[in-house]
Amino acid sequence: VTGMKRCCCRAAPLLALLGIARGRPVGSMRGGGGTSFLSNMCRLRGGQHGAAAGETQIFETVVSSEVTRVATSPFEGQKPGTSGLRKKTSVFLQPGYLENFIQSLFDSLPDGELRGATLVVSGDGRYGNAAAVQIICKMAAAHGVARVWVGRDGLLSTPAASCVIREREGGVACGGVILSASHNPGGPDADFGIKYNVRNGGPALESLTEEVYERSTQIREYAIVAGLPDVDLSLEGRHVFVDEKGGAPHFEVEVIDPTEDYVALMASLFDFDALRSLLRRPDMSLVFDGMHGVAGPYARAIFGALGVADEALLNCIPSEDFGGGHPDPNLTYAAALAKLMGLTGQPAGGEPPVLGAAADGDADRNMIVGRRFFVTPSDSLAVIAAHAHALPWLARQGGLRALARSMPTSGAVDRVAEELGLPLFETPTGWKYFGNLMDSHLLGGADLSPLLCGEESFGTGSSHIREKDGLWAVLCWASILAHHNVDTPEGQLVGVEEVVTQHWRRFGRNFYTRYDYENVDAAAAEEIVERLRAMGSSFRGAGYGPSEPQLLQDGFALATIDEFSYRDPVDSSTTSQQGVRLLFADGSRIVLRLSGTGSVGATVRIYIERYQPPGDEYALLANATDALRPLVDLALHLSQVRELTGREAPTVIT
Question: What residue spans of 364-410 are helical by DSSP H?
Fold first, then answer.
C-alpha cells in the first residue's frame, strides 16, 4: 500500500464550515459535475508520501481486477419490507446470504447504471456492519462501479447517507446501500438490515424491491472481485486499486468524514447563531440521548459547535449492540431520558432540562420531550408545520407548499394544512411515498417542495433530503423555542409544553395512542386482521355506513370499516391492504395494521385517536390516558388481540 499526496485540499474544518455555511441554499456546499469518475481519475505513481495538512491521503494498491463468479442457490424469504430486508443477524451471517441479496439488487438496477458510477455504502455500525461493507465493495467492483464512498469506520446515519447521495460533489452518486435495521436491536443474536436508496437519496420504490425479490428466488451465481483486499475503514482517504504499478485505476474506495456533508447541510438550513444565543441563556438547557447509535457523532459535531456541553450528550458513542439496549426513541426504551426529563418522577439534581430529545439506531427517528411533558410524534409534526415561518430555509423558499402524513398518523397536521390553505397527502407507511411527492415536479406533476411530512412512528422530515431525519427535527424544535424567546426575559422562557398548549388552543387536540404487540405469531396476527375484514363485510352487508352508523358500546357510532389503499398522485401506482380502519361519526379512529419493520414474527399495531376541538380548556388539557380509555377498551374488544395473541398487555404503549 502506497500513500500518495492529493493535489486538492479537503473541505474546511467543521467550525469554519458552520461559520460560513449559514444562509447558503441547499446544495451549494459542493461543487462538481456529472463527468464520470474514471475519466477524471489521475494516474498514481511514486513512493510513499504522507499527506500535507489539509490534504487527503491516497493509498494505492496493486491488485488484480479479475472477477470471480461464485455458484449459489436461492435463500427463502429475501423479500424487502417497508424499509428494506431485515432479518436476524445470524440469518445474514449464513455464507452467501448477503452476497445473494446484493447480486439480486445489482441485477435489478437499470442496465449500465453501475458502470463507472459512484456508490455510497455505509450503515449504523451495528454488529456485522464493517464486514458487510467490505463484501459489498468487492461486489461493487465486480459490477463496474468506479468508486464507493464509505463513512469512516463504515458509519453513515440514514439521513446523512441520503444527504451524501444528493449533495456530495453535486450529487454524482447513483445511489446507496444502507446497512441498518433502524430502531431494532443490534448484536449477534439481534437484527441486521439492508436497503437501497436511489439517485434522489430516497428509498427504492416497491417496483424495484419486488424485482429484487423475484431475482433472489432465481439466483444461480454472484460476482465478486475476491482478490480485492479489505480497506482500513478507520483511515480517511482514497484507497485506489490498480492492476499494475503506474496503471490506470480500476476501482476506488474513498473513506470520508461521515459528518461533513450532513453538518454542512444543517448549517445551511438553520440559523446557528440564533440557536447559540438560545442555548447560552441561563434558563435554557438541552439534553440529547444518542441511544448508542450512529446519531452520536452528528450530535457531538452539531450541538458541540452550538455550545452544548459534552455531559448533556448522552450515549453518543456508537456501539455495535447499542449498549445492549433497544435503540427505539420512545418512552419504553428511552426510559433513562424519560426519567431525566421528569416524566417518571422527580429526577435527581433539581429541575429537568427544558428540551430533551433522542434518536434511534440509524438516526432517522426522533423523540421530543419537554420538562415533564411528552410530545407525541403526530403533535410534533403539526407544531413544526405551524411554525414553518420560524424555520429559516423554509422562509427563504417562500414557505411550505404541501404537507403529508402516513395514514396511521393522527389528523393534527390536517388541521394545520386546512388553516394554511395547503394540500395534505395521506400515504401508506413508508418514506418512499413521501419521496415521490417531493419529486413530483421532476415527473411532470406539481412542484410540492418545500414539503413537510411525518409518521407517527417517530419519523419527521422534509424535502431537504429524502429520508426522515432525527437531528433535523431536534433542530426544528430548538428553532421554534428560539423564535418564541427572542424577547423573553430571563426566567420566563417559553418551553415545550407552553408551545404545544398554545397549538392545541388554536387547532384543537388529537388525543392519540399506539399499542404495539411485538414478535407475535404471524398466523395469530393474520387472524386478527381477517377478523376485522369479516367485521367490515358484515357491517356493509347490514346496510350500515356514514349515513346510518352502527351504535357500539359507550355511545360510539361506527360509520366506516375499510382497508386503506393509496393511488400515488405522481406515478399512479396503487398500494393496497395498508391497514384496517374503523372510522366513527365523531371523527375518532381505530386503525390496525401489521408492521413491516421487524425481523421475526409480526408486530401488531393498534392506533387510537379522538379529536377535541378548541374552546374547552378543561377537555383540551385532560390526561390522554383518561380521554382515550373508552376507545382503547373498544379497540381491544373488537380486535380480540388479547385472546388471539395470548398477550395481556402490549410490548410498547406510545
Answer: 377-386, 392-396
Q: Which residues, including other chains, have CB under 8 Å from residue 619's CB and lie 6 or more apart?
A: 612, 627
Q: 12 vs 147, which has greater pLDDT?
A: 147
519 phi and psi angles, rounded to 5 deg: 55, 45
Active site residue 104: no
**Spatial CA neighbour of 570 closest among 224, 115, 200, 262:** 200
**Whole-angstrom Cα distance, residue 157 to residue 294?**
6
Taking each continuous run of H as one helix and of E as one strand, the counts in the chain are: 21, 29
Q: Which residue has the higher pLDDT, 595 or 162?
A: 162
Question: Which residue has cell 423475484?
Answer: 214
> What is the number of alpha carbons within 13 Å of residue 564 lying toward its C-beta?
22
**DSSP letter (8 states) at residue 3:** E
Q: Are 176 and 197 in contact (CB under 8 A)?
A: yes
Cell 408486530 sits on residue: 603
pTM of the model: 0.88
* Contact call for residues 333 and 516 (beta carbons, < 8 A): no
The DSSP 8-state label assigned to residue 67 in this structure reads P
Condensed to tens digits (0 to 9), the pLDDT of residues 232-282 reads: 999 999 999 999 988 889 999 999 999 999 999 999 999 999 999 999 999
- Look up residue 587 and give its DSSP letter: S
Which of 157, 182, 285, 599 is flagged as catalytic?
Answer: 182
